[in-house]
TrEMBL record:
This is Nucleotidyltransferase domain-containing protein. It comes from Ornithinimicrobium ciconiae.
Length: 228
């Protein structure tokens, strides 16, 4: 178990986040306020140097572990180096530099992607400053910016609805943390996806997530391919 319930700061809007070792065909799933992510042992070890991996080690609680296999895999996971995650976030921001037609058509997916990048950047900033934090409420308190709680919420009833104004606000906040966003030399999302497929698979996969429409949140079962 990881996230707010493992930290002890959950409230009525908090999801229960659980990671399960994939020995029995358990599938990543979301039901109500419960999120279940499945990973193999090798995938857990490969989380070393990522925010998500460090989050599991720092805030997670092992509830059931046959033979200590999960604990042993987590021993391989180390915190990201200083600036490492910020650099990765910055490298993905060209997804947000798209045509006006794409902004209108994919505003839902683009807003979700921007929210994910901003949340990750703020967590990475706290880590680089020597005071790690994976709580949006705590980050908002440190920044003295209570609006962040709603802006970064994973719940559709709490966060502002996707719009060009919301997207622009997320981009401005992201730029304040990581510096200038990266340009997209291909003009639109489909061009970015197609022309980076062979040369930068992470960017291509991440741009594909921005095409998502009609869902409350990003398909996190796909994010391990671009885990920050």
């Amino acid at each position: 178990m990881y996230g707010s319930w493992s930290r002890g700061d959950a409230d009525a809007d908090s999801d229960l986040d659980v990671m399960v070792l994939n020995f029995a065909g358990v599938e990543t799933a979301h039901s109500g306020r419960v999120n279940v992510t499945q990973l193999g042992l090798s995938e857990v070890k490969q989380l070393s140097g990522t925010l998500f991996g460090y989050h599991l080690v720092r805030d997670g609680r092992v509830l059931y572990d046959i033979g200590g296999q999960l604990a042993a895999a987590l021993e391989f996971v180390r915190a990201p180096g200083e600036g490492q995650v910020i650099g990765r976030v910055r490298s993905l921001t060209s997804v947000l530099d798209i045509s006006s037609q794409d902004r209108e058509r994919y505003i839902e997916g683009l807003t979700k992607v921007a929210r994910y990048l901003l949340r990750s950047a703020l967590y990475a900033e706290a880590l680089d400053q020597g005071d790690p934090c994976f709580s949006v409420r705590e980050i908002a308190a440190r920044k003295r910016d209570p609006q962040l709680v709603a802006i970064l919420s994973s719940h559709v009833t709490v966060r502002p609805s996707a719009s060009e104004e919301v997207l622009d606000d997320l981009k401005r906040r992201l730029e304040a943390v990581i510096g200038p966003l990266q340009p997209n030399p291909h003009g639109d999302l489909h061009g970015l996806i197609e022309r980076t497929w062979r040369t930068n698979r992470d960017l291509s996969n991440f741009a594909t997530l921005a095409l998502s429409e009609g869902t409350d949140e990003l398909p996190y079962d796909e994010l391990p391919r671009v885990t920050l």
